[in-house]
Amino acid sequence: MLAVVQFPGSNDDRDMRFAFKSVLGAEARLVWHKDAELPGGTRAVLCPGGFSYGDYLRAGAMANHSPVMAAVKRFAEAGGPVLGVCNGFQVLCEAGLLPGALMRNHALHFVCDFPYLRVEQAVAPFASRARPGQVLRLPIKHGEGAYVADPALLAELERDGRVVLRYCDAAGVVNDAANPNGSVGNIAGVRNARGNVMGLMPHPEHAVEAGIGGTDGVVLLGSLADAVAAGWSA
Amino acid sequence: MSTDPPVDLALAFEHGLTEGEWDDIVAILGRTPSFPELGIFSVMWAEHCSYKSSKVYLKRLPTEGPRVIEGPGENAGVVSIGDGLAVVFKIESHNHPSFIEPKQGAGTGVGGILRDVFTMGARPIASLDSLRFGPLEDPKHRYLLQGVVDGIGGYGNPVGVATVGGETWFHECYRGNILVNAFNLGLVEEQGVFRARASGVGNPVIYAGSKTGRDGIHGASLLASAEFDEGSEAKRPTVQVGDPFTEKCLIEACLELMKTDAVVGIQDMGAAGLTCSSFEMAGAAGNGIDLDLDRVPQRESGMTPYELLLSESQERMLLVARAGEEDRVFEIFRRWDLDAAVVGTVTSSGRMKVRWHGETVVDIPVAPVAQSSPELERPVSEPVALRERQKLDLAAVPPEDDLGGALEALLDAPNLASKAWVWRQYDQLVQGGTIAGPGGDAALVRITREDGTPTRKAVALAVDCNPRWCSLDPYVGAQAAVAEAARNVACTGATPLALTNCLNFGNPEKPEIMWEFAEATRGLGDAARVFETPVVSGNVSFYNETSGRAIYPTPTIAMVGLLEDWERHAVSHFTAANLAVVLLGETREELGGSEWLALRREREAGCPPAVDLDHERCLHALLAEGVGAGHVLTAHDVADGGLAVALAECAMTGPERIGAEIALADRLRPDALLFGESTGRVIVATDAAHEVLALAKRHGVPAREIGVTGGARLVIGPAAGASWIDTAVERLHRAWSDALPRRLAAAGGGH
User: Fold this and answer.
1) How high is the pLDDT of residue B223?
2) What is the rounded (10 degree) CA torsion for B63, B68, B69, B73?
3) pLDDT tens digits, residue range B144-156?
4) Is residue B134 within 8 Å of residue B171, measured between CB atoms?
5) Does any CB of chain B come closer than 8 Å to the CB of residue A13?
6) Which stretches within B30-101 are classed as H helix?
7) What ipTM score was computed for the predicted complex, to two decimals?
8) What is the per-residue pLDDT across A5-30, written as a single tens digit (0 to 9) for each?
9) Closest Cβ–Cβ partner in A18, A205, A211 for B452
10) Cβ neighbours of residue B720 under 8 Å, at least 6 residues apart?
11) pTM score of the predicted model
12) Considering only CB atoms, which chain B residues are within 8 Å of A221?
C-alpha cells in the first residue's frame, strides 16, 4: 500500500491517489497530517503537491513540524521509498530528507507549463521503467521551483549520480532556454545518498492518461508501483 | 454601550439611501432605525445586493429547462449533466475592488465565486476569468494587469482549483474602470444539492471559518454601488483581504459536513457579510433568526454591532444545523482547524433580532428587507450619438493595401495576441481533468466523481463578449456574445446546456445606460431562448463609471456545454498536414465594429455583424454530429480579426506549427473577406471532406472547401497560385506570442 500524505493545503493528493488506484492498479490511501503513525502495511510514501499549510512562510517549512512527518522520517530512515512532488519536494528538503532548497522562480512568477525532462538515472525505485537519457514531457506548476545547491553539494550530487531529472529541450539537450525556473544545473529531480528518497518539481500524476496530459508520468509512478510490488527497500 | 451616531435622513443619505427609501424604512419599522439597522437596510437595498434597477429586466430572461435543477435566486445555478450528476456554476464581478487594490480585489473575487459554488454542496473544479483593462501603454494598467493576474493565481492556485480559460481585452473605455469577472463551476451529485434556507424552528445557526474583522465594511454598498471619482483611492479600506488556505480548508470541511445529514441550510458570507447571509437564509425559509453578536468569533476587540453585521471579512460561512448535531459539526471544523460557533437560533417570529452585550440592537421583520426590496423602472433613452456611430460607408474606407502586414499587425494587437503570459501563471491542471486548457475556443474538463471514479463525460466552458459591438448595438452585441460562447463550446463537439452572465454597465441612473442594459438583456434573452440555454445564474455590476465616463456595455457570457464522450472531441488547431480545410457559414461584407477597422483605420463605427440565431443552432448540431462521428478533427470559431486571424490561430497554436494553402474566390473586397467578423463561421479541418460537406448540407449550413493543411507557411489568396498573404507560420507565431511580454517588459513592469 502507498500512503499519500494529506496536509490541509495539499491539492494534488487525490490526483496522486487516482494515478495509483485507477491507472496503475496499486492500492493507495490518504494519510492525515495529524496522524503520528503511517498505516500498517505502508510500502511507500508520497508527499503530494499543494500548499501544505498555506505556505505563507517558506514553502514546506511548517509541514516539517507536523506529526506525520516524524513518521515519514522514520520510514525513510528504515529504507522505505519516499517520493515528493512539487510541494512534497519542498517539504522533503525542509525536513532534511533531501539536500538543497527550492527558491522563487527566476522570473518571479508562478509558472504552469509542459517542459521536457531528461532521465539521468534510470534506476529503481523511481525510474526503473525509463531508459537512460529518455526524454519525458511532464507538467510543472509552481512559484518556488528553482532548485539551489552550493557548489560543494552540486559537485557531490553530480559525482554520485543523484540528479535524476533535468529540464531539457525536445531533443534532450540541456540548455538555459529549456530551464523554466532558474534551477541550478537544470535540475528538476534529485534523490538522497541511499537512493530511497526522491523529490521532483514536475507532476507525474498529471500525466497518466492519453488525452489528459499524456502518459509520461506512468514511467515514474509505474516504477514506484513496481518497486512496491517487489518489496523494494534501500 | 457603543457610541453610535444619531440616525437621521442625512445619515441615510451618507449610506447611499434615497429619501423614499428612508420613508419606507421608517414605515416598515414604525420608528426611526437604530444605527446598525440603518446599516443593514443600506446594504440590503444597495444596487449590488437588491438588483433594484435590473430586476425588471432580469425577470424576462429564460431561466427554465428540462436540465435546470436550480435557476437564479440561489448562490449559483444547478444543471443536470445526467447519471445523477449536476454542475453548479456562476460568474460574478469584482470590478471596483480590483481597480482599487488589484491583487486582493481579484483574489477575493475568486474566493467569493468559489464559496457561491461549494455552498451548494459542489466541489469547485474549474475557473474562468474575463478581464478588461485600459490600454497597456498606460503604466497604471500594466500594474493593474499584473496585480489582477497575481491575485487570481495567488488565490486560485493555493485553493486547488484549476483556472482553465478566460479572456483578456484592452480598451480606452476601461481606463477608469477595469472589469474582473470570475467564473467557477463545481460538480455535485443531484441528490446532494444544498440551499440557503434557515429551516426548522429551534435549529442552531452556526458561524464557521475566519474570524470577523473590520475589513470590507460597505464594500457592497459604497464601493460597488456608486460611481468612481478622483477620490476613489481613499476607498481602499473597503477592499477585503483574502486567505486562500483558509478557503481551501473551508471547502474541504463543508463538503465533508454536507455528506452528513447534520446540515439543513448553508450560505456564504459574501457581500454585506453576516447581515445578507442571515436575512437571505431566514427569508428563504419564511422564518426569523435570533443572533447573539457576542458569540461571533472576532479578530479584533471593541467591534461595534454595526461593524460586526456589515464586515465583509472573507472565508466565512453561516449554516443551520439540525438541533442536537452541533458536536458533529464542530468536530469536522476542528479537524480542519477552523473556528466554528453557535451564534443564533432559527425562530418562528419572522424577525431578525440581534443582541449585543445583553441589549437588542436590531429588530427588523425579515420579509420586507429580504424580499420586498425596491424595484425600479428607471427611465431609458437611446444614446443620441448612436445612430451617427452606426453609420459606416465602406466605399469611403480605404481598402487595406498590405494584407500580409495587416495580419501581422492584428496578431500583435493586445486584444488578439496570445494571452499565455496571463494563463501560464495559473494552475490549469489540478484535479486532473483538464483535457483542453486556456488558449483554445473552449476549455474541456473531464468529470470525475467525488469518490475518484472517472466518467466518460466532460464539460466545455467558454466566456465571451465583444464590448465594441455591444457599444454599437447592445441588442445585437449581446446576442453575438451568447452566440460566440455557444459556438466556442460547440467547436469541441459539446452541446451548449446553459449559461451564466455578468452584466457590466455604467451608472443606471442615466437613461442611456439603462437603455443599453434593456437592449443587452433583450438580446441575451432572445439568443438564450433560441439556443435553449437558460440563464441559471448571474450578476449585475452597475456604476462602472468614473467622473461621468462609462465603460462600453459588457454583458459577459459564460456558456457551459456537455460532451458525453470526452475522448471524441475536436481541437482548435491543425493536427496534421494534408487535411481538407472547410469553412462553415457565410462571409459577408461586414467590417463594422471590427478589430481591423479599429486598428488599421482607427475607427469604431458601423453596425456589428448580423447574428442569425437559427443558423447558429444548426451549426451546433452539425459540429456535435461531425465531431462525434470523428470527421471533424479541428473546429475553430472565426471571431475577432476575422478569417485570416482564425486561420493563423489554427496554424500556430498547436504543439506543431502546420501551415495551409487557402483559396477564397469571392466577390467581396479582400480586406472584408480576410478581416471582416461575420458571425456563425467555423473553420474545420477534416480527413473526410465529402462527409463534412454532406453533413453541412443536411443541417442547412453553408459550407465550402477552401484549402488544405501542410507546409510551414500560411498562404491565402483568391485562387491557387495567387496570394494576398504568404507568411511563415513561425513568423506569425512570434508576432502573436511576443506581443504581451514585449509590451510588459519594455515598460519595466510599471510598478
Assistant:
1) 60
2) -20
3) 999 999 999 999 9
4) yes
5) no
6) 35-44, 47-50, 55-58, 95-100
7) 0.95
8) 999 999 999 999 999 999 999 999 99
9) A18
10) B661, B663
11) 0.96
12) none
